[in-house]
Design goal:
mainly beta; Hypothetical Protein Tm1070, Chain: A; 41 strands; 34% strand; elongated
């Protein structure tokens, strides 16, 4: 069979053929004994053509044909597995398909209808198809006598996943809401009680379906248990343009992680309900989209930020700050040293952590930044480690690390971490540590959160389009100890199975989503709080030094290693309390509240009494969770 993407000339943009009109049929069923009828009418005085394209839910083209219609003529196509059905004159019988279809025409006098009949039952529903696409549709629930159920069919005729928000209302009151992701070239067909568990037909009088992406009109489906009454009709568009809320000032760029991992190695994509379902690669995200402007600059089309392409030679932190004010590049003189949130927007977790790699050949390594930027690893020939590719930001830690050092949060694009780095001279040296720098300009609002307390235990960030749990996993007393601390596998399962405040689409956030809610103006040692807006609640812990502190939180993002036998053994976390490490015989804050490091996905923390790595990073393995969902 032919993949639907072969026909993108038909199914992209306005979905039109020859630049004209496409009617969308969001639902065809192959379930016995349903009979589906597609009828195309030509009311013009001249012959006309129509393009009929039918595809299944796997995106495979099941039927494609150009139909020639005489003036004032019609053509009907019947799809059914009901073998008792007798075709009538003028009807063409096709193989049944579980999928959707489109009818593309070049004249508005050519229209199409879709009809459904259940076997030989006298009840037949027939309605005209709409060429309308939009960002929101209304489907009224008629709540008629002798009808037992109501639902909807929503088609996604596009290549990318379509995320929709479905809300049910009764008497003007919101009764339930949820978000669903419809894979490319697929559809969602479901009754109300499966869309919103516990809500039956009598529980709502209308539903709205909205998205930040344009999509075709859905249809309402209503019927009864005896299948002798059915009602199908198209939704009406209530939102023709993207909402202001969908125009985000702080869009989170995806991690670019496409591989799946268990607790140690790569695995095939898990299905819903299976272990490790809900990890980073499971969900669609904003794909990185860079333009090389050919003048030494790179534009990030997702964030609106323009970047320096070549970081040049390493420089001290003082030089990095000073040079920002004097840089003129590509005719611009408003360059700045990026904040940690701006710089972290560039990190890609398709990179491979070379920590522990003893070789000097870096040709087989993959950095944590797109190849559109110039990048180099540390140079062992001058005494550096391969992982010495730290990039500077303007974000200083409000506390100190290493028992008193002024600290800057930087991103290491060699090993995929945020750590705090001292801004002064290195131990035993008169010169400061040196960093690469990528200066930035544009979108001054990037990295600024706009939190809204929804008053129901959730917090929305209208700058990113994400909704967060106000409480963390400690509030739910989950985990082996009942304190909210979970292994990575447990964290995924907890997030996927959570139903809270009418939402069932909670998930474990990616590393970049999680880092977006860090408040770098806060730290336990200075403000007495976690590094997060006080609108959120954080569980309290005692850290390795016995101090009152706040947890590290798991992300859904695997921190892949160069070692094939343990490629997927670690996952990224973000510390909202101190970034503890064991140095010079004692525990201390080595990397700052707001650092992003990684922990083993399984194991025993007691096996790491002095941490791990050059700064003795504390290894906890059982971290906390703050769930997230996408809002439109």
């Amino acid at each position: 069979m032919i993949r639907l993407s072969t026909f993108l000339i038909i199914l992209v943009g306005t979905m039109s053929w020859s630049g004209e009109i496409t009617y969308f049929g969001p639902h065809l069923t192959s379930t016995t004994p349903w009979v589906n009828k597609i009828t195309i009418f030509n009311s013009d005085s001249e012959p006309q053509n129509a393009q009929l394209l039918i595809w299944d839910t796997n995106g495979q083209v099941a039927y494609e044909n150009t139909i020639q219609l005489d003036s004032n003529d019609s053509e009907t196509f019947v799809l059914t597995s009901f073998y008792s059905y007798q075709t009538k004159e003028g009807e063409m019988l096709l193989d049944p398909v579980q999928g959707a279809f489109s009818v593309t025409v070049t004249d508005e006098k050519v229209v199409s209808t879709l009809s459904f009949q259940y076997g030989n039952q006298p009840s037949v529903s027939s309605f005209f198809l709409s060429e309308r696409t939009g960002y929101g549709f209304l489907l009224p629930n008629m709540q008629l006598e002798h009808f037992d159920w109501a639902g909807a069919a929503i088609s996604n005729p596009y290549e990318n996943t379509l995320t929709i928000e479905l809300k049910a209302f009764h008497g003007g009151t919101l009764k339930a809401q949820t978000t669903k992701a419809i894979p490319g070239y697929s559809k969602l067909v479901a009754t109300a009680d499966t869309i919103w568990p516990g809500l039956d037909m009598d529980g709502f009088d209308q539903m709205t379906i909205t998205s930040s992406t344009e999509f075709p009109a859905p249809i309402l489906i209503s019927g009864n248990a005896t299948q002798d009454r059915h009602l199908f009709f198209m939704g009406t568009c209530i939102q023709s343009e993207a909402s202001d809320e969908s125009k985000l000032s702080y869009p989170i760029v995806g991690t670019n992680q496409s591989d799946f991992y268990d607790a140690n190695r790569e695995m095939s994509a898990p299905s819903e309900g299976q272990p490790f379902y809900g990890q980073d690669a499971q969900y669609s995200s904003n794909s990185p989209n860079y333009t090389d402007n050919g003048d030494g600059t790179i534009t990030d089309q997702m964030t609106g930020l323009m970047w320096q392409k070549d970081p040049g030679s390493k420089k001290t932190y003082a030089q990095a700050v000073e040079d920002a004010g004097s840089l003129t590049l590509a005719g611009y003189d408003d360059w700045r040293l990026p904040s940690i949130k701006e710089l972290y927007s560039l990190i890609l977790f398709s990179g491979i952590d070379p920590s522990g790699y003893s070789g000097q050949d870096t040709s087989g390594l993959t950095p944590f930044i797109d190849s559109v930027f110039d990048f180099e690893y540390g140079d062992p020939s001058v005494g550096e480690r391969i992982i010495d590719s730290q990039f500077a930001t303007s974000t200083l830690y409000v506390d100190t690390t290493m028992n008193g050092d002024e600290t800057m949060f930087g991103v290491n694009f060699a090993d995929g971490r945020i750590k705090g780095y001292g801004t002064g001279p290195m131990p035993g040296s008169n010169s400061g540590k040196t960093f690469f720098t990528l200066y930035v300009r544009g979108n001054p609002d990037y990295g600024t959160n706009r939190f809204v307390d929804n008053g129901n235990g959730t917090v929305s960030d209208t700058s990113t389009g994400l909704m967060w749990l106000q409480q963390d996993s400690g509030f739910f007393a989950v985990g082996d100890r009942g304190d909210g601390a979970l292994s990575w596998e447990q964290a995924l399962a907890f997030s996927e199975n959570l139903e809270y405040e009418g939402y069932s689409d909670w998930r474990l956030p990616t590393a970049k989503e999680l880092q977006s809610i860090v408040d770098y103006s806060r730290a336990p040692g200075i403000t007495g709080t976690a590094a997060i807006d006080p609108m959120f609640d954080c569980s309290s812990i005692n850290n390795e030094l016995g101090q009152a502190d706040y947890p590290c939180y798991w992300s859904s993002t695997t921190h892949a290693s160069w070692a094939s036998d343990r490629r997927g053994s670690n996952a990224a976390y973000v510390a909202f309390g101190r970034g503890m490490g064991y140095m010079n015989g004692t525990w201390m804050d080595v990397h700052g509240a707001g650092c992003q490091r990684s922990d083993p996905k399984e194991g025993d923390p007691s096996d790491y009494p002095t941490g791990h790595g050059p700064q003795g990073d504390a290894i906890r393995i059982f971290n906390f969770v703050r769930c997230v969902r996408t809002i439109n």
